[in-house]
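Case study.
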Amino acid sequence: MSRLKLELCEQLLKECYGEIVASVGMSLLHNKSSPLAMIIHRTKMEAKQIKQALCSLIQQNIVTFHKNNAGLTEYSGSSDAILCRLRFPHYIHCAKTLFGDAAEFLVEELLVQGRSTLGDAVNKTVNKLNESLAVSKSSIPEISQNLIKDKVSILVKARLIRRCHDVSRDKDGKVISMDDMSNPEILFDPPREYDYEKSTGSKRSAGEICEVPLKKIKLEDGEEASSLGKPSETGPSYWCVNVHQFHHHFRDQAIISAVAKIIDQKASEVMRTMLRLSETKTVPTDSISAHLSFTEICTAMPKDKIMTSNVMDQYLKCLSENCSGFVTKVGESGGGMFQINFSKAVEALCISEIETIVLERFGSKALRMYRVLLAEKQVEQKQVEEKAMLPPKEAKELLYKMFAENFVTLTELSKAPDHAPARTFYFFNVNLLQVSRMLLEKCYKATANVIVRRQKCMSENKRLLDKQERVDAIISSLDAAEQKEEIEQMVTLSERKQLKKVGEASKVLETSELLLDRTIFILEAFINSTIKPLPVIKK
Amino acid sequence: MAGRGRGRGRGLSINIEALGLGRGEIIPSVAQPPPLYPPLLFRPLPPARDTDLDYMVALRQELRFALHKSPYYVNAPHKAKDIERYSDKYILGANDGAQKWEPDWNMFPAELQEKKKRKFKTSGAKPNLKAARKVKAPDVSELLEKLEKVDETRENPEEETNENEETEEGVKKEKNGDDEDEEEEEYDEEDLEEETDYNLAYFDNGEGYGDDDEDDDEGPTY
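After joint prediction, the assembly is written out as follows.
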């Protein structure tokens, strides 16, 4: 893990959960996994607070724990889980656009709580929705629990929320480690009635857990496999947001909008339909989708966007030929078999992201050269000049600038064993993976900087912001218009101007955080797609 | 033998001319790190705005607020600064108002659980006022009965007036004593509730007041 990524993690933790959690989290990230005593020793803080911070981190699905060989519980943190915090607004917005307000509130509640029982989450969502209904004074009747429960089932079916990993216990009923699921499908088991029961866990006193009779636990051990479907005596299970599914959705969305830009809106509809079809058939982590036949795609098109098979044929041909290999034709049966190539699609998205950066950083002439390099793989300096149609001097300058900033790499090929420059070819090329890694680092750095800048902006104007908050609170509690005006006068004109400026600045900074995260997402998706999964060793 | 090795040290080991530099040219030395804020070639575009992004920015601010208020935000303990200030009492932490969160210990390792300390009261043992009063209650009823009896006897012709008066006085004394007791008890309670009550801690019966003045009256001191 790189230093810059860690720095960003620290900033995020500090902002979301405070200094103490940040230092505990960082100590965990710096070391692969460590027992409690080690963390206390390293951070040199009070044990009580460290424990509290660890609980927070586990609750937020950042830290996992397992038992080591010596019998101690070891904790380990995940930096990716921390970086997800940047993406929270995206998740919530996505849930809203897919399944409406109720889903939005549910996902938001789960994200803030980290993990929660369905009963609690549903209750809070119902309350929130009814509150907002009361405020807007609309004529819609109160929202019932059942309606929200249906939404939960839909979300689980869409795999947007899942069960949390269960824990395993030792003989005394003490929790020692998190289960690593052999069968991930268990996590998406649809919720049952008992899942909506009120959680009792939080109210349970410490002593009660120890009182769980040994007999019961032994029984549980014996029928571990069958007990998964039943309500365990520990109460309803916990649920959390499945970020991976959200990421797949974001990827699909990016592919669709790319197609819309390359071809047209109708083509993007075809692409959307294909993605929807493949969703149910393909393992989401696969780099290529299952085969989709022409007739299948035709019948699955939404009713209002149905097109004749002739037009459809044209679009599919267009998609498979023009879109840098998003779609490939794999056979003729069933009117033509098609396949979505996710890894190629992600690569194309990543390339376009890199090209935009080159364009904004070095100008359009540099981009022309960069495209030559991307297309030709290995090019000599002279060829670059010729193909990009640039005067040698300008080309040389831009090329070496890009070289200095690591956008371009150089390969030496010597004719003689002495590597004399006169007898050596110098080929310029672009190593996509390396460039995207470099840019990813820069994005981490930039995001951390933006966060620091925003915090500084806020702390500098803390007094003003506090005042504004108090004035707002007073105004909302008052009724008479005169009094309101009087209170409003408390914030002077110059202060108001300053406040507006601060608000504007922080908004720009936050927007850039969100946009940076989009870039991070694409780059990460590309890098992850190049990593081949480890071969599974079967015992 | 020693002379052989000396040749290598002179100049650079590579042929500079091959790199396109003249014989006499000095290679610019890099003596300092690149600037912290390198000048930008182009001014970056302002971030694009659309309704979705604006909505997400609002969501972000809301989320941050919610997280700060949530019990998962662990506050640093208030550090005692140089001196204790009166205003310290009114400084609230970010989530002091939030409800306390108790993790579900079915899902968390037991070692993270803070063992609850049993409070042993070693000093400042307080009397159980309520219990004490309950014990007294029958006394009061007895007293009332007594008083009723006294009243009855009063209504009777003045046969045992002397005795009556004596008993009446006795009862009165008792009653007075009881009242005082109760007052004291109430007093104690208040004292416990507001330990820092300024008025209670500071008591001046005014005995010393004016002493100095009297001394001064005797005449000016030179």
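Observations recorded in class. The first strand of chain A starts at residue 34 and ends at 35. Confidence is low (pLDDT under 50) at residues 199-233 of chain A. We will return to this complex in the next lecture.
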